[in-house]
Amino acid sequence: MEDAEEAQRFTRSKSADSWFFLGRKVAKSETVFFSQIIIIYIVVITCIVNLSLERGNSNLWTALLSSSLGYLLPNPKIKKHG
Q1: Domain ranges of the chain
Q2: 51, 53, 71, 52: which is closest to 61 by C-alpha?
Q3: How far apart are CA 16 and CA 81, in angstroms?
Q4: Are residues 47 and 67 in contact, defined by beta-carbon separation less than 8 angstroms?
Q5: 20 to 30 Å CA-CA from 52: which of 2, 8, 14, 74?
Q6: Exposed e or buried b for every residue in 54-78, given b needs 16+ CB within 10 A?
């Protein structure tokens, strides 16, 4: 009885890890990752355009731009020798 419940939980969690998008099965984590990256790039482009055209509050666009770049750039790491 417990094995059947455990197998059912595993099947549910495995099916929850993928979505159907345009008739194709795609991994949930990949879809979320690429969606986040696309949104961040839209924010970066919007910030650059508004700063270039001097529209709105420049402090707002600068803060959004620096936050977005901080999200996109990887954390620096020191390589260990040996």
Answers
A1: 17-71
A2: 51
A3: 41
A4: no
A5: 74
A6: eeeeeeebeebbeebeeeeeeeeee
Query: Token digits for 40?
Result: 């961040």
Helix, strand, coil percent content, the chain, rounded in steps of 5: 65, 10, 25
Give the integer Cα–Cα distance in Å for 66 and 69.
Answer: 5
Measured CA to CA, the distance from residue 55 to residue 27 in angstroms comes to 39
pTM attached to this predicted model: 0.65
**Per-residue tens of pLDDT for the chain, all 82 residues:** 555 555 555 455 555 788 887 888 888 888 888 888 999 999 999 999 999 999 889 999 999 999 998 888 877 677 777 6
